């Protein structure tokens, strides 16, 4: 119940997430586990060694493009431990993509704040979402783990038999995703990666996107790196030098 009473005091009241609403959100996801059914957006038409292939959509890691390749319909950013029983997890072939944590953070800021996004966060917070500076966004997004939480939560499962997804792709190697899928027994009709839901404009530096100075960028990188330390370690990304 701790997460139901905590709130981020570093944020102004209008940007704080209702902790009860947060608990309700995650509780509704557990309905799938109770009913022992896989969320429809997880499902693909493919099989590996007789196991149905599922796609776990880690936000801002090229998941929309992967959905196009694998033919998924619908969208969910649900973490597998919330929606699946271990028995179901063990009888599926799971795919997830990961990304350098700071690049992912920048992409998230570009998408939610700079871009035309008008989804659930905008519906709740309105124009205050679009007016956030990068440091405020960093504190803000901590209360919304389903939108930009730790990537290990999408790539792992509390199971001693299969503690992580069967195939973890890297966004930085997305040009080879089709070949990688084929090497793992998944041959799709799409042999090139479509650019879907891209947030970043080419030619813009991180400081440009985040609208901060280079000295502020260095400080923010350090803060983001410490917060996402588990992701750097788990996925093998080099920890930023400070």
TrEMBL record:
> Which GO molecular-function terms appear in the entry?
sulfotransferase activity
Q: Decide whether keyword Transferase is in the record.
A: yes
Family matches, as InterPro entries:
P-loop_NTPase, Sulfotransferase
Q: Give the source's domain of life in one word.
A: Bacteria
Which keywords appear in this protein's UniProt record, sorted alphabetically?
Transferase
- What Gene3D superfamilies does the record tag this protein with? P-loop containing nucleotide triphosphate hydrolases
Identify the GO cellular component terms for this protein.
membrane
One matching Pfam family:
Sulfotransfer_2
**Protein name, per record:** Sulfotransferase family protein
| Source species | Sediminimonas qiaohouensis
Lineage of the organism: Bacteria, Pseudomonadati, Pseudomonadota, Alphaproteobacteria, Rhodobacterales
């Amino acid at each position: 119940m701790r997460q139901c009473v905590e709130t981020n005091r570093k944020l102004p009241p209008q940007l704080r997430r209702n902790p009860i609403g947060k608990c309700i959100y995650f509780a509704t996801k557990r309905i799938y586990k109770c009913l022992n059914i896989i969320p429809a957006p997880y499902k693909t038409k493919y099989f590996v060694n007789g196991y149905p292939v599922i796609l776990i959509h880690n936000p801002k890691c090229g998941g929309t493009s992967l959905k196009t390749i694998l033919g998924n319909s619908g969208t969910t950013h649900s973490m597998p431990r919330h929606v699946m029983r271990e028995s179901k997890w063990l009888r599926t072939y799971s795919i997830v993509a990961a990304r350098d944590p700071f690049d992912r953070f920048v992409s998230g800021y570009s998408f939610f704040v700079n871009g035309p996004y008008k989804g659930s966060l905008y519906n709740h917070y309105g124009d205050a979402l679009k007016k956030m500076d990068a440091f405020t966004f960093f504190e803000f997004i901590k209360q919304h783990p389903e939108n930009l939480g730790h990537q290990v939560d999408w790539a792992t499962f509390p199971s001693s038999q299969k503690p992580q997804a069967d195939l973890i792709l890297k966004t930085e190697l997305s040009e080879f995703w089709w070949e990688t899928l084929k090497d793992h027994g998944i041959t799709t009709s799409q042999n090139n990666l479509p650019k879907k839901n891209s947030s970043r404009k080419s030619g813009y530096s991180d400081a440009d996107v985040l609208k901060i100075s280079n000295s502020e960028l260095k400080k923010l990188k350090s803060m983001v790196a410490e917060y996402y330390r588990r992701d750097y370690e788990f996925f093998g990304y080099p920890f930023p030098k400070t």
